[in-house]
Write a structure and sequence with these properties.
Elements: E1 3-8, H1 11-25, E2 31-35, H2 48-58, E3 64-68, H3 72-83, H4 86-89, E4 92-95, H5 99-111, H6 116-124, H7 129-134, E5 155-161, H8 170-180, E6 186-191, E7 199-200, H9 204-208, E8 217-223, H10 227-239, E9 266-268, E10 270-273, E11 276-283, H11 299-328, H12 330-333, H13 335-344, H14 346-357, H15 363-379, H16 384-387, H17 390-405, E12 418-422, H18 427-431, E13 438-443, H19 451-459, E14 463-465, E15 479-483, E16 488-491, H20 495-519, E17 523-524, E18 530-537, H21 540-548, E19 554-558, H22 572-586, E20 591-594, H23 623-628, H24 630-643, E21 649-653, H25 659-679, E22 689-693, H26 696-700, H27 702-706, E23 711-714, H28 716-723, H29 742-757, E24 761-764, H30 775-781, E25 785-788, H31 793-801, H32 805-815, H33 821-831
Parallel strand pairs: 1-2, 1-3, 3-4, 11-12, 12-13, 13-14, 18-19, 18-25, 19-20, 20-21, 21-22, 22-23, 23-24, 24-25
Antiparallel strand pairs: 5-8, 6-7, 6-8, 9-16, 10-14, 11-15, 15-16, 17-18
């Protein structure tokens, strides 16, 4: 089977691409990464030796495909090949395909057993693969009609009523398009309520410009051999409301315009983000990119320029998404998912390519024309909410244009705290703001439902939008005050205005402080039961966020990050330094370290697997892998034991299915402890050992396992898919994997009962723990602790404080008798008393 190597300046990007590609084929293809350099000050770059080692780790007589980003990546790859024996050099192929799409297309082709030339062809054609498979030929960005298909091809149709409060706005539209693109069938969509034309289901812009709002009726058709599966997957999205809670949308408080005219120096605007700011003004003006249209002869080179700019833009947006996820949470950061899909829209790409190849336009002019056309299509919509999405189109369009023009990103760094004044801010601009320096936002455009306003609210930056353009003429340094709750701003405010605003600001800051204080208080139910709230983390930076968010400890430290981004296993000293650093931040709070959980679907590139696994989720992974690599396992155990001195550290073993696995791991742990004793090295001899309960067999013998360990932690992510026999990464069956299904809940109950009967504690560290709808179920089942992502901690603590154990146990009793996860959710929504 062909091996794949990903070469990139960014290690984080390359690992993300590898993970995404590996999920597409469930680990069937060997994929290695050679990315970044060992320079903490400037980690971006490529190393020929890394590339050589990566090629060697996946080398196959069937060939190796090397995908690269720009610049030195190509030079490093060329140099690496020279290190190989001449016979092997002939079987290594450098490919200019786009990194993300190329990797996905390549691994799918390799997994299908295609030869190296076919794999390379698939990678090269990745960007337009969906359009080619659908056989759609359309004018740029126009709506489409069904193409002629084989009369024997199955055709399925479904009509759905949209229940989302904001309809198919950016995030649901992105989910729809991403799901549609997974299938070979031609998928078309029509908004019957608005009597639109049919549009392509794999085009983010065409789906969004259908103007789908709550209550609209859609007709979706799928034509092809997998039409049934495609319709079922899309139907599941609607049934699950695209994962949105209509009652919890991030809206600003209602704003009522004053009926009296503005006083001297007062500006009236839109209340977009609450809070008061008083500070000097600093103007922000994005760099204008002047476009000149001209005729080009080398059209292929010009099209390559566009593809290269899109590739880099994608990397930049992914970096923004990663930073935004940490700063504002995954839900709001998903705004940037739609921007990534914009760059993958086959209709848009075809339009740009046609302008270059047929009309010989230069890249900048062709790209700008296409973006303008999309923006116009949004402007013409009747729906004001969807009209506002043009800002997102322009945001990503300008990013690509800036890269084509060779301009540097605009500088948003402020030397001292200020109120930012601008015509408008894009979502990318807003996500980059530092709330400690940008105390307020005042713009002449925008609305309270724009993505920039949503981000500002999440960051806690007061904002007043849509004020008079005279604000743009203010000199930098002019004192301004703004009230994001009433939608007013004051230029050089008088003393009595300042006094009133200062008092309101103090009250607002007190309320914010109380909210933070609540997050740092214990989670106690109304009838006095305390539940520990821990954090799931995967890095040192994560633990800092966790502590700031009110975590009472770490319930799951995923140690895989130490192993997956390298060409060799981390040393004992390297691991020790990381574990000690994390424990130091926790300051004697509990730290549960899960031992290495790789193998199967998460292979290590430097440990070759000589046999492919048809079902990696059922294969050689977790504790099975570690027991077969005792030296690797011992190194990690030594580091954990050494870090345990004067810290509250516990060991947790993953993927336990049998009692013998626990005993074998404890024997190795005992050997390591004896070696440390002999060497005179200190460690916590009383350190507790627990296991992950994520395999059905572990539930069945939970009473026997409880006699062997000190605690359980239930991993509902894996446990749910094993119980329901459904791969949660497979869109065709992923809807079955719901941890609130009564079958899953009964196994969780059985596990808790066995643990408590043996006198040991039991926690839960799956995604279910962060779902506040599930909080009464988890309380009623009797869990001792919940471990969630850091951003979810305040919300989970608030949910617990609103509940009692008595009512939660009553809900559980009814939930366990339901016949589906849907009915469990309906039950909870009906029985839980809303907060007063």
């Amino acid at each position: 089977m062909v091996g794949i190597v990903i070469v990139s300046h960014s290690k984080q990007l390359a690992l993300g691409v590898r993970e995404l590609a590996a999920q597409m084929v469930q680990g069937q293809v060997s994929i290695a990464v050679a990315a970044g350099i060992e320079d903490p000050e400037n980690p971006l770059g490529t190393d020929p030796i890394q590339v050589y080692e990566a090629i060697a780790s996946v080398f196959s007589d069937d060939g190796v495909l090397v995908l690269m980003d720009l610049g030195s990546a190509l030079l490093s790859a060329e140099m690496a090949i020279e290190f190989l024996p001449e016979a092997q050099q002939q079987k290594v192929h450098l490919c200019e395909a786009p990194l993300v799409e190329g990797a996905i297309a390549a691994v799918v082709a390799a997994a299908a057993g295609r030869d190296i030339h076919q794999v390379m062809a698939e990678a090269r054609g990745a960007l337009l693969a969906k359009a080619t498979q659908l056989g759609v030929v359309s004018s740029p960005l126009s709506v489409v009609t069904p193409t002629t298909t084989n009369i024997e091809s199955p055709r399925r149709e479904i009509r759905l009523i949209v229940s989302n409060r904001l309809g198919l706005h950016a995030r649901p539209a992105a989910q729809f398009v991403a799901t549609a693109a997974r299938f070979q069938s031609q998928i078309l969509v029509q908004n019957l309520t608005r009597n639109t034309e049919l549009v392509r289901g794999d085009s983010i812009n065409q789906v969004t410009t259908l103007g789908v709002r709550q209550g609209h009726e859609l007709v979706i058709t799928a034509t092809g051999f997998d039409a049934d599966e495609a319709i079922a997957a899309l139907q599941a999205l609607f049934a699950n409301n695209f994962g949105e809670d209509n009652a919890a949308l991030n809206y600003p408080p209602a704003f009522h315009h004053t009926v009296t005219p503005a006083t001297h120096g007062e500006l009236l605007g839109i209340a977009a983000s609450p809070g008061v700011a008083i500070a000097p003004v600093v103007h922000y003006q994005p760099t204008h990119i002047a476009i000149t249209q001209y005729h080009v002869e080398d059209v292929e080179a010009e099209w390559q320029r566009v593809q290269a700019a899109i590739h880099t833009a994608r990397q930049e947006i992914q970096a923004v998404f990663s930073q935004a996820s940490l700063q504002i949470g995954d839900a709001e950061a998903a705004i940037f998912d739609a921007q990534l899909l914009f760059l993958e829209d086959p209709v848009l790409l075809e339009a740009a390519k046609e302008r270059i190849l047929k009309h010989h336009l230069n890249a900048e002019a062709a790209w700008q024309a296409v973006v303008d056309e999309v923006a116009t299509s949004y402007h013409t919509l009747e729906d004001s909410y969807l009209q506002e999405r043009v800002v997102d189109v322009v945001d990503v369009g300008q990013r690509v244009l800036r890269l084509l023009a060779g301009n540097a990103p605009a500088n948003l760094h402020l030397e001292r705290p200020a109120i930012l004044v601008a015509t408008d801010l894009t979502p990318s601009d807003t996500a980059r703001l530092d709330p400690t320096k940008v105390l307020g936002i005042c713009t002449t455009s925008g609305s309270a439902t724009s993505h920039s306003a949503i981000i500002a609210r999440t960051l806690g930056i007061p904002a007043v939008l849509g004020v008079d353009a005279q604000v743009l003429r203010l000199a930098n340094g002019t004192l301004m005050a703004l009230d994001g709750e009433s939608g007013r701003a004051w230029v050089e405010p008088e003393s009595h205005i300042l006094d009133l605003l200062a008092a309101k600001q103090s009250a607002w800051q007190t309320a914010q402080h109380q909210a933070r204080t609540t997050a740092h208080q214990p989670a106690i139910t109304r009838d006095g039961r305390q539940v520990s709230i821990f954090a799931n983390i995967g890095s040192i930076s994560d633990v800092q966020v966790a502590v700031a968010s009110g975590a009472e400890g770490v319930g799951l430290l995923r140690t895989e990050f130490l192993y997956l981004d390298r060409t060799s296993a981390p040393t004992e000293e390297e691991q020790l330094a990381v574990y000690q650093a994390i424990a130091q931040v926790l300051d004697h709070r509990p730290l549960i370290i899960r031992t290495l959980d790789v193998g199967g679907d998460k292979p290590l590139p430097y440990l070759r697997v000589d046999f492919p696994e048809a079902n990696p989720f059922l294969g050689w992974r977790g504790i099975r892998f570690c027991l077969d690599h005792p030296e690797l396992f011992k190194t990690q155990l030594r580091a954990i034991l050494r870090a345990s001195v004067e810290h509250q550290i516990k060991i947790m073993l993953p993927m336990i299915a049998t009692v013998s696995e626990v005993r074998a791991a404890k024997v190795i742990l005992g050997e390591v402890q004896a070696e440390l004793n002999q060497a005179g090295i200190s460690f916590d001899a009383a350190m507790k050992v627990g296991i992950m309960v994520e395999v059905p067999s572990a539930v069945a013998i939970a009473d026997q396992l409880a006699a062997e360990v000190d605690f359980f932690s239930i991993g509902t992510n894996d446990l749910s898919q094993y119980i329901m026999a459904s791969d949660r990464t497979n869109p065709r069956v992923a809807n079955l994997v719901d941890a609130l299904h009564p079958a899953v809940l009964r196994m969780v109950q059985q596990t808790i009962q066995a643990a408590h009967a043996a006198g040991i504690s039991v926690g839960l560290c799956g995604e279910l723990a962060a779902d506040t709808l599930a909080t009464p179920i988890l309380l009623g089942l009797g869990l001792d602790e919940l471990s969630v992502n850091p951003q979810s901690i305040p919300g989970v603590k608030q949910a617990i404080a609103r509940l009692s154990i008595v009512e939660s146990e009553a809900i559980v009793a009814s939930a366990l008798q339901q016949d589906s996860a849907v009915h469990v959710r309906e039950l909870i929504s009906t029985l839980v008393i809303p907060p007063t």
